[in-house]
Design brief:
The chain has 127 residues and is mostly helical. Helices cover 72% and strands 0% of the residues. The chain has helices spanning 2-21, 25-30, 38-58, 66-88, 97-103, 108-122. It is elongated, with a radius of gyration of 16 Å. This is Alkyl hydroperoxide reductase.
């Protein structure tokens, strides 16, 4: 659990910094048009970076700080749902799915397993 959250923290801090410092780079890599307002994308990078800090702090006691893991897990579920909703309306191109692989999909099982242990051992109590 500790290692999972520390890896998630490092990843989120790196990804967040990349998006803040180079907001058009992802779009260039996948051949998408750059955003008209890159500061919106940079804001997303800042939020993701803050998640990274939360994951790092939660890694010291994942069962105690499970709400941070739960919020992250919800984001990793709702992000892809938002993508699908927008993709089906032709609002966002398919290439945007590349961000979901490393930002969301790879974390589903590890975060789920942490929360499963919270359910089994703590019954969702805040201690």
């Amino acid at each position: 659990m500790k290692l999972t959250l520390q890896l998630a923290a490092v990843y989120n801090l790196i990804w967040g910094a990349w998006v803040v410092l180079f907001p058009n780079h992802f779009f260039e890599l996948v051949g998408m048009e750059p955003l008209n307002h890159p500061m919106v994308w940079q804001g997303m990078g800042m939020v993701i970076g803050v998640y990274g800090l939360g994951y790092w702090w939660a890694s010291y006691n994942p069962l105690k700080h499970w709400p941070i893991v739960a919020v992250g897990f919800l984001g990793k579920i709702f992000g892809p749902i938002g993508f699908l909703f927008n993709y089906l309306q032709d609002i966002v191109p398919f290439e945007f799915i590349y961000t979901l692989v490393t930002n969301d999909f790879i974390w589903w099982i590890p975060f789920f397993l942490i929360l499963k242990k919270v359910h089994t051992d703590y019954k969702w109590q805040l201690r």
